[in-house]
Write a structure and sequence with these properties.
It contains 5 helices and 3 strands, in the order H-H-E-E-E-H-H-H. The protein has 149 residues and is of the alpha+beta class. The protein is globular, with a radius of gyration of 15 Å.
């Protein structure tokens, strides 16, 4: 099982937590070879953006000179104290979308997600089925926004 380092402490500011995302991304990239699935996707554009978002993240695609460029967008609620696991899982999930840009959550994507889950020990799926701290925060946020609509 692979455990990626991304340790938040209560003393860290949001800015300090943001600074952990790029090293985490590059650590995933360095370990990609372990999966034995091919080269790490070169089409991911950094920096990774953080938004006040209604979901954990997305891999936004843009065609440029017949090459699909992916930009990963993450929900800033993933920077909360207890949400490190969700941050790692979401980042891996979106990298898989960059690796298989036209697959969405199809059979190939799900097969790859199962392989990553088995090899690295992070549960990668179409949706977060676990009742994690990030899921609770997102549910609360959606409920609040529905009250105003």
């Amino acid at each position: 099982m692979k455990k990626f380092e991304n340790t938040f402490t209560n003393e860290m500011t949001i800015e300090e937590r943001i600074e952990t995302i790029h090293p985490l991304f590059f650590e995933i990239k360095r370990n990609w070879r372990e999966l034995k699935i091919g080269k790490f996707p070169r089409n991911i554009k950094l920096p990774i953006l953080l938004k006040d978002y209604y979901k954990y993240g997305s891999c936004r695609r843009k065609n440029k000179n017949e090459i699909t460029i992916c930009r990963i967008v993450l929900n800033k609620l993933l920077l909360e104290n207890d949400c490190q696991y969700d941050l790692i899982v979401t980042l891996i999930h979106e990298i898989l979308h960059a690796y298989l840009p036209n697959e969405e959550h199809g059979e190939k994507w799900q097969k790859l997600a199962k392989k990553v889950t088995k090899k690295w020990g992070y549960t990668i799926s179409k949706t977060n089925k676990e009742n994690t701290p990030a899921k609770k925060l997102l549910r609360k946020k959606r409920k609040k926004s529905n009250e105003y609509n």
